């Protein structure tokens, strides 16, 4: 796939600076040619456009890693079942995608790029379809909110009970929709717990600005409301075979999947030292610190370091959590798990690279509440 990967990356570089316009043009072509497909998508398309671009970039980046490429696309196919996507829709999407890129690349676009994207998209579609067809689960699960707690002005911790069993692995994420307030508008969140016998899932959400979904989940969601959950995705999971000590780095509500992994470790770990670095802007944003400290007091293999980047009187570490991690160590022989906003994850990965932590030992999950 070497030549194909080269052509895809080369052609994508021609339109990358116009990617928002590419996404807008792409959806416009779909809805103009097939108006009936508009009802499959949310009213507000801003995040949906960003997700399209994210999926394209991820697919291109993983093309030369067959196992990761296959896992990602099969998971994407399972996830898209929530939109009621049918096999015939894939052809429409492929044509619109190539047309959008061709339009913004202009004269630099060549027939070889057309063929490369047609070939790549055929593989992408086949793997997504295979993932969707192999999934025997429902396209989504209804779940009832059984607890909802505000943590400060803009953070909520709430628990839901799916009406049917929902299997997932600690560290994964899934899409959530709140039909009462924002129908057809899905956002991804990570459960903050490992799978439990009672089938409940806990979520940590921060309301960001005028975020359509996050604001509703924090400020309007109530006990008794129903949400919908889509198929779990992601590979930020623990390897039980690993004997290396572990470092968890969390920024803000990126703590959720870290807590999920910690809960799993409490069930079997006896030999691995685990270090948690939890960072936020100020002490009020360290919304679940009491629970982390409770876990650290109970399990001698667990240590917790906290940091604030914009709270000079905070008694813990000062600065961005990505920098704080670098003050400790050495970390070359540890497994790393990183979760937080895009900039936080990027900064942490940069620090770990400077510390010469092998990338194969780093798993990460970045998010954007909206």
**Through-space gap between termini:** 36 Å
Strand order within the widest beta sheet: 4-3-6-1-2-5
For CATH, the homologous superfamily of the largest domain is named as Globins
CATH class of the largest domain: Mainly Alpha
How many individual β-strands?
Answer: 12
Our Rg estimate from Cα atoms comes to 21 Å
Under CATH, the topology of the largest domain is which? Globin-like
Q: What is the mean pLDDT?
A: 90
Supply the number of helical segments: 11
CATH architecture of the largest domain: Orthogonal Bundle
**What class, by secondary structure content?**
alpha/beta
Structure, explained:
It catalyses: 2 nitric oxide + NADH + 2 O2 = 2 nitrate + NAD(+) + H(+); 2 nitric oxide + NADPH + 2 O2 = 2 nitrate + NADP(+) + H(+). Residues 138-239 form the FAD-binding FR-type domain. InterPro entries: Cbr1-like_FAD-bd_dom, FAD-bd_FR_type, Flavoprot_Pyr_Nucl_cyt_Rdtase, FNR_nucleotide-bd, Globin, Globin-like_sf, Globin/Proto, MRET. Keywords: 2Fe-2S, Heme, Iron, Iron-sulfur, Metal-binding, NAD, NADP, Oxygen transport, Transport. Its cofactor is FAD; heme b. This protein is α/β, with parallel strands linked by helices and 370 residues long. The protein folds into 3 domains: 2-134, Orthogonal Bundle (Globin-like); 140-230, Elongation Factor Tu (Ef-tu), domain 3; 246-367, 3-Layer(aba) Sandwich (Rossmann fold). The protein is 41% helix and 21% strand. It is built from 11 helices and 12 strands. It has helices at residues 2-15, 19-33, 46-62, 66-79, 87-105, 111-134, 212-219, 255-265, 289-298, 321-326, 342-354; strands at residues 140-150, 155-162, 174-178, 182-189, 201-206, 226-230, 246-251, 274-280, 302-308, 317-318, 335-341, 362-367. The strands form 2 sheets. A 6-stranded antiparallel beta sheet has the order 4-3-6-1-2-5, with helices on one face. The chain is globular and about 60 Å long. It starts with a helix and ends with a strand.
């Amino acid at each position: 796939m070497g030549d194909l990967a080269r052509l895809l990356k080369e052609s994508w570089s021609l339109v990358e600076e116009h990617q928002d316009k590419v996404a807008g043009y792409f959806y416009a072509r779909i809805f103009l040619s097939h108006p009936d497909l508009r009802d499959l998508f949310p009213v507000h398309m801003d995040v949906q456009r960003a997700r399209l671009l994210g999926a394209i970039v991820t697919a291109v980046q993983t093309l030369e890693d067959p196992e990761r490429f296959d896992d990602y696309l099969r998971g994407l196919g399972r996830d898209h079942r929530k939109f009621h996507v049918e096999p015939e829709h894939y052809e429409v999407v492929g044509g619109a995608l190539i047309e959008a890129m061709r339009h913004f690349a202009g004269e630099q676009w060549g027939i070889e790029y057309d063929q490369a994207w047609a070939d790549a998209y055929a593989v992408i579609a086949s793997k997504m379809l295979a993932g969707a067809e192999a999934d025997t689960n429902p396209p989504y699960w209804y779940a009832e909110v059984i607890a909802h707690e505000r943590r400060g002005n803009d953070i909520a911790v709430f628990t839901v009970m799916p009406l049917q069993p929902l299997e997932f692995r600690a560290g994964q994420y899934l899409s959530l929709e709140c039909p009462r307030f924002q129908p057809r508008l899905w956002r991804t969140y990570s459960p903050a717990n490992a799978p439990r016998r009672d089938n409940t899932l806990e979520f940590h959400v921060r309301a960001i600005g005028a975020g359509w979904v996050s604001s509703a989940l924090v400020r309007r969601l109530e006990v008794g409301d129903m949400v919908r959950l889509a198929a779990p995705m992601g590979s930020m999971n623990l390897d039980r075979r690993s004997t290396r000590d572990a470092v968890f780095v969390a920024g803000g509500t990126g703590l959720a999947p870290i807590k999920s992994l910690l809960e799993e470790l409490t069930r079997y770990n006896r030999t691995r030292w685990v270090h948690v670095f939890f960072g936020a802007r100020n002490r009020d944003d360290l919304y679940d610190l009491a629970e982390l400290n409770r876990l650290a007091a109970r399990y001698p293999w667990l240590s917790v370091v906290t940091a604030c980047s914009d709270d000079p009187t905070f008694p813990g570490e000062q600065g961005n959590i990505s920098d704080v991690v670098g003050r400790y160590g050495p970390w070359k022989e540890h497994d790393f798990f990183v979760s937080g906003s895009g900039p936080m994850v990027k900064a942490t990965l940069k620090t770990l690279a400077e510390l010469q932590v092998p990338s194969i030992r780093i798993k990460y999950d970045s998010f954007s509440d909206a």
